[in-house]
Amino acid sequence: MIPEMMADTFDRYVEKLGVPAPVRKMDVEAGDAVFVGDTHGALDVSAYALAVARNSSVVCFVGDLVDRGKNQLHNLLFVVESAIISGRVVIVRGNHESTLTNDYYGFSDELKSMGVFDLIYPHIVRLYGRLPYAFLLNSCVLAVHGGIASDLPSLADWESLPMDDPEPSNQGAFQILWNDPREYVDGFLPGTRGEGTYLFGPDAFSEFSQKNGIRFFVRAHEVKKAGYEYMFQGKLVSIFSSRYHKGKAALLRLSLEPDFRQEIMIVPDEGGPILWPNDPL
């Protein structure tokens, strides 16, 4: 009965998402948004993020809920159930929400060890194909897991990406999940993560941002021992929230007022005291 209930949870979220949209859009008049980077099974980080975002207008998980760490299935279930309950919770697809990675980085093995792979995984794969590649907040804050793509210069191009693509096999979508920013790069250069991945530089980022009216860019995807890193004159931030990689797990709180005031929140060490950030922002 329990595996069937888990499968039903994933199906209910697919139904809630409705017609699959590559770019999920939301407009919020006031308040703040909390962004969570890769958690890779860190259920305590996900729970902490929702707790500190209890008064926030939006909380966005920027992909990679599974693979690598422990509690991967429970982490995914917890975040998906939270998104079903509250429209304030947004899940953006990461490169580990993919059939390409799950066989190599632990999620398939965890499901098999629990004896639920055949019962649950098809429902999870269906969900992967329905998760948005990007979250556009107030038409000017863009959150993606990886970065911009070499052949998709406008968000209109992103909105035409095919969905229900479990790898994904579409190269533009693949790059959005896998690409990385670098200060020293001009334009785009082949990346270090394998064929089809790219590094993008400040010029490519600036051109994309100006063309699409993007004032602030949030992404995850890269290990940051401090839990975060700002680039491109502070207009792009990488947030990393994984316990598995032994660094700090960070969250970003972003004011939705015109000044976009920001607060980096470091999640307390596992097993340590919970020190709640001050509210309001």
Provide a short characterization of the protein structure.
By secondary structure, this protein is of the alpha/beta class. The chain is about 30% helix and about 20% strand.
Architecture overview:
- The protein has 281 residues and is of the alpha/beta class.
- It has a domain at 29-147 and 218-266: 4-Layer Sandwich (Purple Acid Phosphatase, chain A, domain 2), CATH 3.60.21.10.
- It is 31% helix and 20% strand.
- It has helices spanning 2-17, 43-52, 72-85, 99-102, 107-113, 117-128, 155-158, 171-178, 202-212, and strands at 23-26, 32-36, 58-61, 89-91, 134-137, 141-144, 180-181, 188-190, 198-200, 216-219, 228-231, 236-239, 250-255, 262-266.
- The strands form 3 sheets. The protein has a 6-stranded mixed beta sheet with strand order 1-5-6-10-12-11, with no helix packed on it.
- Strand 3 (58-61), helix 3 (72-85) and strand 4 form a beta-alpha-beta unit.
- Helix 2 runs parallel beside helix 3 (72-85) and helix 5 runs antiparallel to helix 6.
- The longest helix has 16 residues, at 2-17.
- The chain is globular and about 50 Å long.
- It starts with a helix and ends in a 15-residue tail after the last strand.
- The relative contact order is 0.17.
